[in-house]
Amino acid sequence: MEHFIGNIKHFVLPFFLVVSLSLTIILILNRILYQYRLPYKHRIIRKSEIFLTEITLSRPDKNTLKYKIAKFKSEIPIHKSWCKDMLIEDMIRMKSNLKGRTAKNILIIYKELNLNHYSASLIRDFRKYKKYKGIYHFQSLGYRPGISILKQYMLHPDKIIQSNANIAYLALSKGDWQAVDKLPVKASIITTIKVMDVLHTENIPIPPDIDLWIVSKNKAILKLAVMTMVYYNYRNKAAEIIKLLHHKHLGLKTDVIMAIRELYLDEAEQEMLELFYGETFKIKLEMLKTLAVIGSEKTIYFLKTEIFKQEVKDLKLQMVSSLNDLDPVGLDALGAQEADTQKMINHIRKLQL
Amino acid sequence: MIRDFLYHLIRAYDIFVAGFSIAYILFYVFLSILSYLAIVKHIKYMRYLEEDILIRSNHILGVSIVAPAFNEGVNIVYNVKSLLSLTYPKFEIIIVNDGSTDDTLEKLIAEFDLVKIDFYYQEKIVTQPVRGHYKSKNPVYSKLLIVDKVNGKSKADASNAGINSSQYPLFLCTDVDCILKRDTILKLAKPFMESKTRVIACGAGIRISNSCEIKEGFLFKVHYPKEWYPRFQELEYVRSFLFGRMAWSQINGLLLVSGGLGMFDKEIVIKAGGYWHQSLGEDMELITRMRRYMHDTNKKFLIKYIPESLCWTEVPSTREIFLRQRIRWARGLIQTLYLHRKMFLNPKYGRTAFVVLPFFFSFEFLVPIIEFIGIITLVSSFIFGMIDFQYLLIISLLVYLFYLSITIISILIDEILYKSYANYKELLTLVGMAIIEPFVYHPITVYASLKGYWLFFRKKEQSWGVMVRKGFDQPKKK
User: Fold this and answer.
1) Can you give the residue range of the structural domain that contains A339?
2) Does A121 touch chain B (CB under 8 A)?
3) What's the fold here for domain B50-322?
4) Which residues, at least 6 apart from B385, have a Cβ–Cβ distance to it below 8 Å?
5) How many domains would you assign to chain A?
6) pTM
7) What is the pLDDT of residue B473?
8) Which residues from B are below 8 Å from A313, CB to CB?
């Protein structure tokens, strides 16, 4: 016991004392330094914002542009990482709000300030979070020469680096879909969302292999195919989409039902009505929403029969809502027969105040 | 003879305390490593999916914000406007007027042009009767739904009525006076959308609004509180949110998502039975029950935590209200542990049974009792001349310096990541509070805990009490 107490006294206590004191000093000094530098940083940030706004909107000729960039470079601490980061973030923000030649000016400034080398050095850095940042810079600024560097990371073992590099490659190559062909079977929903975002923002033409994607064995590619077809309003493979209603994966099935709704594939009506009884609660809800859009007399008959039988209130409410879209007069007649249905009718109609 | 017996008893207690303290310290060292890993992971995942991409996608999940209000007439209009200003593509705000006796409902009706609607109310969780639902005729307020119900004498009952009235799969539970950051919904909903394993709840950091500059329900500038009780509570919040809860999140061991700010999977909450209206710590009790439900049904789940502070709330600034709150929390803790005692060390409940609940029992519930026995032992030792001053000093210093290191690490992490305070003077004050906390503030919390336990065992009637709000109509200046 004596020995134990001795150890605490001579080693553990001094250790915690030193830790507490040194951390407090670091904490306070770090803040004082931050406060001291803040006005200077704000001045540089203001200067950069003015410069970027002027130069992108005034459309100067090549020589003036180079002169102005060189002058600006001499006025800011461009060698500092915080300054580079701040400039790049500003450029990304501006580029997202601009189009055409003005947006291209941003890319010229990016190169003239050698910030492309900075982004490349971030990608090559051993720290993962730096790599993410570098890839983000290339993609957001549309820096196409960066493709050669990105290619090296498309099969990286880190799933975030791999996903981000593939998406950046897709965006910069303007539709080289080799990235998608290599999607792993268990590609996350995040990768799919990112691919769809690139389609939206980069005006990429419809993938030539889309007809093959829809018969792929890979669940991730199937999901992407369905979403892509919705985006391009591509109805040529309606039969294949409808066939996927039998897929066992619930997430994919939900996307398929939504796609049928978005693409208005009314030929799916009969199949959905037949499958309805064997589905889960969530799939049934989605089916009812879709039937409200593509449904015909068959659906109206189905709903009129089912509303009185349905015991799950949420499903019954959705049925009432769907029938309200397809046959509001017929629904009124049902409401007159049953108080509960009438309450639901009032609910869905009054809620849309 | 008696003296010998007493001597051995005190020695035994000394050894127990030394062992307990070392176990406590080692566990907290382990938690600090987990917390670091969790924060790094969070920062890493921020770049996996940029938030603006998620907003643009069709995969966004709808969120219902549920905020109970009881006699909040002073601020209700500002509070609702503040909630309406949140940015998210698919959300609704449900204010539950829990039988207010002031003009809360009248003010809402007048300000937001509300009319009573025929709402098909499904009582999936049993609550006190709901008198009616109100929507605005003005399309600008289309996201707003007011539920007017009979007072249920608990926030839980009001929250349940809000959950029953909600339309989206996720709900965010908050207090109506809480001020949320504009992107709060997105930040809390993101883990539900990006995780492969089902996320059933998600929480985030909460800060104190007592001395912040607030105008018409909007936060202008964050300041470190000026009053003593809020100052200590701020310190407590920084430590527990950034340090403790992040660590628990890393090993999926969270047992508490604050009632002030938490997002939940509605389906699981309803299946677990919703908030328990008789609980005095309904937030902790709900999470425990949700965990139990997921284990019982053999479903994989995650409960996540975000290190960012997304919510500012007013905390008790007087000793009377503070004690009332802490007594209630203590009773809530023991009540939850007692209610779910069958989960302890039951292999069916995995780490909840073998790590989380034993931790809460040993290092949350038992600590005030051990400290109280320690004081008695100390006094007895002193009276009988058996006190070992060197041993006392060394063990006390060990616990104190360890506590101080952990607290300063938490402040440092917060400072590096978020720079929450206005200047270095506020940081110095915070460090100063950390130095005196064990002598000034901690004894009060121990007293509150013991009183809470005492009242629980005596089965005294439970009551929420009233949290006196100062109101935001006058901007608070530093």
Assistant:
1) 296-353
2) no
3) Spore Coat Polysaccharide Biosynthesis Protein SpsA; Chain A (3.90.550)
4) none
5) 1
6) 0.88
7) 42
8) 122
